[in-house]
Design a protein that fits this description.
Helix content of chain A is 58%, strand content 7%. By secondary structure, chain A is α+β, with helices and mostly antiparallel strands. Chain B is of the alpha+beta class. Classes of the chains: A alpha+beta, B alpha+beta. At the A-B interface, strand 4, helix 3 and helix 4 of A face strand 4, helix 3 and helix 4 of B.
Amino acid sequence: MGEEVKLFRSWSSSFALRIVWALEIKGIEYEAVFEDLSNKSPLLLQYNRVHKKIPILVHNGRPIVESFVILEYIDETWKQAPLLPEDPYERAMARFWAKFGEDKVLTSIWSAFIKQGKEQEEAMVAAMENLKFLEKEMKGKKFFGGERIGYVDLTLGWLANLGSIFEEIVGLKIVDEEKFPLLYSWMQDFAEAPIIRDNWPPRDKMIVKFQALLDAAIAASSSSSSSK
Amino acid sequence: MADEIILLDLWASMLGMRVRVALAEKGLKYEYREQDLRNKSPLLLEMNPVHKKIPVLIHNGKPICESLIIVQYIDEVWYNKSPLLPSDPYQRAQARFWADYTDKLNAKSLYELGRQLWLTKGEEQETAKKGFMECLKLLEGELGDKPYFGGENFGFLDVALVTFSCWFFAYESFGNFSVEAECPKLVAWSKRCMEKESVSSSLEDPLKIHGFVIMMRKELGAE
């Protein structure tokens, strides 16, 4: 069966990394196409007309976009090493926590990193509240998926890498081992799993990249005349 | 097999209506419990401690939250009748993509844009109107000449979107524009959907929604 699987990604995107992990966990052969997001290829723009973003999975010439949508597509197409649970209720819970991770956890932690002053304080408060919910969800489990890495782990995986990168750049403790012991140990277990560990982008490059983003944000906010 | 299904909802919510349509499509009996969001019930707070929002479906005592997650759950549990998602993974991905497009929380969701349409004035409103119409036009392009977003059959994406149609009149009044003028195919599609019992029995009267928006504007100090 001639399966052609391509993944359009960038060297640093946490969203694309979810797809890399899923493909590797399932042992699916694929071709990685690295995009320079400051100079997007015509193919990228053609495959993702609506959002013009990566990741894009192209399976036998047909594109699928949006990382959550891609993950479900992969899970439904290649049945080995299932990412989502079989039981409909457990699946609904997995989808709920993945959405929570994206809409609330990622948003608040990103704000805690990129904003300054009062906005940053407020973002940190929100982030702590959100992490409390995740901590509770981890009770009795090694991974969010249970014994094995699953859908929710992949969608939250950015936390196990970007968490410490943000902390290092900004000097703020986000996932404090004492406050969030289960989450903290999940981050270690997840980051050290072979497939995950072998695919992290180079840490020094990541620090340079996010430091630059933060510097640009600080410059932009101090040059604006209105104060919040 | 006696299933106990309870829906915590707000009558005017187009997100809650999605669940009502899905339940009706599957021919399911359920208990509807109207929620007062200014005075949240202990049950709501217990069943949705994370977001404290409606809709919440409680199936045999277990809560499911987030409207599109609930619709998928309903589709998966009661898979024998009126399937909402197609069986082909690629078609499913397309349906999920477009449903997700309307619900993006980081960029503005259709719900958010609509809300700003009736809540704000001047430049803010114009920006919201522009974003709202861009979204509808893209969706109309996706519909094309198909009877439903799902093709020949009413499906997941139709459920996700049709509930907004009973809010069009309110959006048009306060935003001063016409959906039909810009997206005639979408309006025709919404009328076609309303011919289905599951949709007409789940959606609210546009005039009542309009009255609801007037009340909300007063409450939120938009007058």
